[in-house]
Design a protein that fits this description.
mainly alpha; 23 helices; 0% strand
Length: 539
């Protein structure tokens, strides 16, 4: 059973990673098709949608899978099936109500974002895009519950495959639709963005079809389990749903953390820019802050947290069993791995901000400056995600909600003043302050309830910082020498410059990490296994 569980977890993690990877890199052709101003319009539609869908689905697959697995283990297969059937009805109703709310309120949402006649887009145009994306709310909650059902039966393949198919279908429709509208039908950018956001509905349809196919394929086996039902437990679905809501709330808040910060920008950014006479460029700068640079910044976050989060279930197990020394050791490793992987990626993006922005989008001094400021916030994104997961592991998830609300409150208070002072960069500073406050609260809670302090790894953090300084010096020197030899406006040459500098920087960083034993201390037996395989291959 354990090998099956490990295999299933790996499949689900791989599916999630592939889906996120595709979601990060479609922006390159999309930006080329619609242009930089249109990305702000796309984001105006997606920010409220992301919040609606996160509230409707975040934590649901995990919560449902938890209860189905629990009652399956007791031989109460009928309970899980009842939960599944009633849940599909509830999620269908809530999904449709969420769609209606978002569709009807679209003009109101749009009026919050468009506050000045000098802005590029009108209230009607933004409302059109919000309505186009709202249709996905009809399907996605229903689909998330089906994924939870399969996961509850230790079957991770359906969730993983449906995630990847959903993302592929969405991206194909998004790119092809936007291109056809603009270049075949000679339509407007607004209509192209409407099609691009409607792609969320199309992707959801394909994801749901995959799940239906798996249901049909495995229904016979699932019905066989029903025949083995013990039917001895008196289980009230109302009690299960009550517990599901409590269980899912922390996941909802973690899931909507970044969208909530983006919502604050969506509500306040254009207003603040208009008050300082910058309404004409407000949409463009908003698109750079909340779409273009954010997509690049999130790359190291996805990679590092995916690796560090694999250690969190071990922390949960050790904490429940009362092994405090083991918990501290695992927390040490979690934070060290996170910083070891995230910090050099952030330093690299800061140093190579110009070619990075050019490779993804186009050569832009404003985009370069904002990306350079935004990059360090990736470390805060990663730390918040991991500390929130640790709070879940030590059963103190209620503080996740508190810390996030404190961060959002700071963002709300500081956003307009900082935007007036620093324009686009001001919104980033407010985000950094908010996330920083949340992380400090999370760490204090971890210290109190798990008796853990980052002081125990201060030496290792110092090593990581020192090796990053050495790496940065090497990359900066190489970039200074190589930069004049490349065309700053060329995407291909910018990508080549990034590759050369990144390889050189990684070589320096890993050389010192291996030489000092830091890499061995962090990755232990996994690294030794790779070394042995390499030695055997060399022999």
């Amino acid at each position: 059973m354990s090998s099956k569980l490990i295999r299933g977890t790996f499949i689900l993690t791989l599916g999630t990673f592939i889906s996120k990877f595709l979601g990060l890199f479609y922006v390159i052709p999309f930006y080329s098709i619609v242009g930089k101003e249109a990305t702000s319009l796309y984001q105006y539609g997606y920010v409220p949608y992301t919040i609606f869908i996160s509230i409707a689905t975040a934590g649901v697959p995990l919560a449902v899978s938890k209860f189905i697995a629990k009652y399956n283990a007791l031989g109460e297969y009928a309970v899980g099936r009842r939960l599944f059937k009633s849940g599909l009805v509830i999620m269908s109703i809530t999904g449709f109500l969420a769609f209606l709310t978002m569709y009807i309120c679209a003009p109101w949402f749009a009026s919050i974002m468009v506050v000045d006649k000098d802005q590029i887009y009108t209230v009607d145009e933004v409302a059109y895009v919000i309505r186009a994306v709202s249709f996905a709310l009809i399907i996605v909650p229903f689909m998330s519950l089906m994924r939870g059902f399969f996961q509850g039966h230790q079957s991770m393949g359906p969730s993983a495959v449906s995630q990847v198919v959903e993302q592929i279908a969405r991206i194909i429709f998004l790119l092809a639709g936007a291109y056809i509208v603009l270049n075949v039908f000679n339509g407007t950018v607004v209509h192209a963005i409407g099609v691009a956001t409607f792609a969320a509905f199309v992707g959801a349809v394909f994801g749901l079809l995959v799940l239906f196919w798996y249901w049909k394929k495995r229904k016979h086996h699932l019905n066989e389990l029903l025949e083995k039902d013990e039917s001895s437990a008196d289980v009230k679905l109302f009690d299960i749903y009550s517990e599901i809501v409590v269980y899912a709330i922390p996941f909802i808040f973690v899931g909507i953390a970044i969208p909530l910060y983006q919502l604050v920008d969506t509500v306040t950014f254009n207003r603040a820019m208009a008050e300082i006479g910058q309404a004409k460029v407000a949409d463009t700068v908003f698109g750079i802050v909340n779409f273009s640079t954010q997509k690049i910044v999130i790359i190291p976050v996805s990679l590092a947290t995916a690796f560090a989060m694999t250690l969190v279930p071990l922390v949960t197990s050790s904490f429940v069993s009362g092994s405090s020394d083991k918990v501290k050791k695992q927390l040490d490793q979690t934070f060290q791995v996170l910083l070891y992987l995230t910090v050099p990626a952030v330093v690299g993006i800061m140093l190579l901000a110009e070619p990075f922005y050019t490779a993804f989008y186009e050569h832009s001094s404003l985009g370069t400056d904002i990306l350079r400021v935004y990059a360090p916030v990736a470390i805060l994104f990663a730390l918040f995600t991991v500390t929130a997961a640790i709070l879940q592991g030590i059963n103190e998830q209620r503080f996740t909600v508190f810390s996030l609300l404190v961060g959002i409150l700071l963002k709300l208070v500081l956003n307009i003043p900082l935007i007036k002072l620093f324009q686009g960069e001001g919104a980033i500073y407010a985000t950094a302050i908010g996330y920083g406050a949340s992380i400090i609260i999370n760490l204090l809670v971890i210290r109190y309830y798990a008796d853990y302090s980052l002081r125990s790894i201060a030496g290792k953090i110092g090593q990581i910082a020192w090796y990053n300084i050495i790496m940065a010096a090497a990359v900066l020197l190489l970039y200074f020498v190589m930069h004049p030899l490349f065309n700053a406006d060329s995407k291909i040459q910018s990508t080549l410059l990034i590759a050369i500098c990144a390889i050189a920087g990684a070589a320096v960083y890993f050389f010192f990490s291996f030489r000092s034993g830091l890499a061995d201390a962090l990755f232990g037996t996994r690294l030794n296994g790779l070394k042995n395989k390499f030695k055997r291959a060399k022999a």
